[in-house]
Amino acid sequence: MDDPPERSNDAFETKAIHAGEEPDLDPGGTGDLVSPIHLSSTFAMDEAGDPSHGYKYSRLGNPTREALDERVATLSDANHAMTFASGMAAIATTCLSVLESGDHVVAFDGIYGGTKVFFDDYLAEHFDVAVEYVDATDADAVADAVAPETALLWMESPTNPLLKLCDIAAIGGIADRHDVLLAVDNTFATPYFQRPLSLGADVSVYSTTKYLNGHTDSIGGAVVTNDDALADRIRFVQEYALGAMLPPFDCYLVLRGSKTLPLRMRQHEANAKRVARFLSEHDAVTAVHYPGLETHPQHGLAARQMDGFGGVVSFEIDGTGAEARAFVESLDLFTVAVSLGSVESLIEHPASMSASYVPEEERLASGITDSLIRAPVGVESADDLIADLERGLRHL
Ligand SMILES: Cc1ncc(COP(=O)(O)O)c(C=O)c1O
């Protein structure tokens, strides 16, 4: 097959439609516009051990997955992308590829709870990797925590669920000075609104379950990097040791979903801005966390390092945990569910849902109060969404 056309100079919208899915018009090609779903687990070889088509076994290489890998790499301005069976698989494979017993990790204290569980209950517990959590909204706190054993800085921006940011370029500088790796979970921003590798990260991860797929019908993850040696290491661990690949049907779903990523992200953001503004003016709401609001403490950083503020808003109501819970249950358009990044609006009460397993004292210390609510805003009509929230808040 000829090399695919170079897409790196195209606009994001063009890359989202075409990268990885050029029709095969070679003699014998089918001309499919849409990548076929290659379900075969193994591939017939014309030459034993060295097939001319290059495919041997689906864990080691699959044409549908390669199409998606190329799409994700191109959208992320990255040389390499690998797609995984979940965001957690992408995170775990990355960490297990770069860390050794005795290493030290500096992590943002606001990272996704699942990543924290992996760090605390697995890396620290079974691999003797020490993880130190710092308030990375202050880059100096990250620099101060770096020790001779530090191998990795693990950041997320914006964070889940409190929408805190870290200065990726400043922390990239710290990583370079100390010769350690910087990884950034870019799930909330997506490559449309933020490209951590261009800001100085060595590796970036996504849960494709969220915006990249965007339609609530696939669990997946991705890792992107420009570092050839790092890509080889992660790919080796993925293909030969851990094997958590994204299955072909899910690759097709993410290829399809990602075509509309720019359209959806613009609408998610427009709706989230209106919802955040509405909430910030409501008497029953005591705090709104959304980087697009000028009152967000890191609004300036968000405007500098992101091309948009994203679609997730979290807020606190003037009430008890039971009232916050009753409020989310009272809504019609916002569905009570964990996860985010899909076309439909969801709502959750972290204290009784996504953070319910965290001991109360630890949860409160991390800022997840009893009255905190997280609302990933979908692409429905903003008027309808605000009317739903208005109704719910009136009945508080
Ligand atoms: C920021 C972030 N990273 C990673 C993950 C894990 O992704 P997955 O659920 O696809 O394993 C999530 C899931 O909510 C997330 O919000």
From TrEMBL:
Transmembrane: is it a keyword of this entry?
Answer: no
Q: Which cofactor does it need?
A: pyridoxal 5'-phosphate
Bias type Basic and acidic residues, positions: 1-21
Q: Which GO terms describe its biological process?
A: methionine biosynthetic process
Report TM segments: none
Which residue stretches belong to region Disordered?
1-32
Q: Which UniProt keywords apply?
A: Pyridoxal phosphate
Any Pfam family: Cys_Met_Meta_PP
Q: SUPFAM superfamilies recorded for this chain?
A: PLP-dependent transferases
* PANTHER family in the record: CYSTATHIONINE GAMMA-LYASE (PTHR11808:SF15), TRANS-SULFURATION ENZYME FAMILY MEMBER (PTHR11808)
The similarity comment for this entry is:
Belongs to the trans-sulfuration enzymes family.
According to UniProt, the name of this protein is Trans-sulfuration enzyme family protein
Source species: Halorubrum rubrum
